[in-house]
Amino acid sequence: MNKVTQKLCDQVGIDVNYLTNTKQIGLIEKLVELVVDECIEIIYKQDRLPPGFFYGKDASTYEFALRKHFGVDQ
Q1: Which stretch of DSSP H or E encloses residue 37?
Q2: Which one of 13, 30, 47, 67 has the fewest CB atoms closer than 10 angstroms to its CB?
Q3: With b meaning 16 or more CB within 10 Å and e meaning fewer, what string describes 5-18?
Q4: Angle at the Cα of 15 (from 20 to 31), degrees rounded to 5?
Q5: Model confidence pLDDT, tens digit, residues 11-21
Q6: In the chain, what are the helix, strand and coil shares in percent, each to the nearest 5?
Q7: Angle, in degrees to the nearest 10, between helices 3-11 and 22-46
């Protein structure tokens, strides 16, 4: 589990150090993946706006950054 996901879990009161069930960890990681996918979908919809909306960067740049930040593989 990536450090960002661990930090978010800590913020909501889930101590991942005490999770012994790998299914629980997998469910948390899947939830993060789904949230990241939803964010990326919004970015690609916004990418259809006039040029410059994303300060000259295309949506794939942001997709890569989000996936890297949250440790979500493509």
Answers
A1: helix 22-46
A2: 13
A3: bbebbeeeeeeeee
A4: 80
A5: 999 988 888 78
A6: 65, 0, 35
A7: 100
Please return the burial class of 69, using the count of CB atoms within 10 Å of its CB with bins 0-12, 13-18 and 19+: exposed
Which tokens go with 11?
């913020």
Joined tokens for residue 25: 């960890």
Residue with the two structure tokens 């259809």: 48
Distances (CA, A) of 10 to 5, 15, 28: 9, 6, 12
Contact 67, 36 (CB under 8 A): yes
Which DSSP symbol is given to 13? T
For the chain, give every domain's residue range: 3-70
Q: Pick from 29, 68, 64: which is nearest to 43 by CA?
A: 64
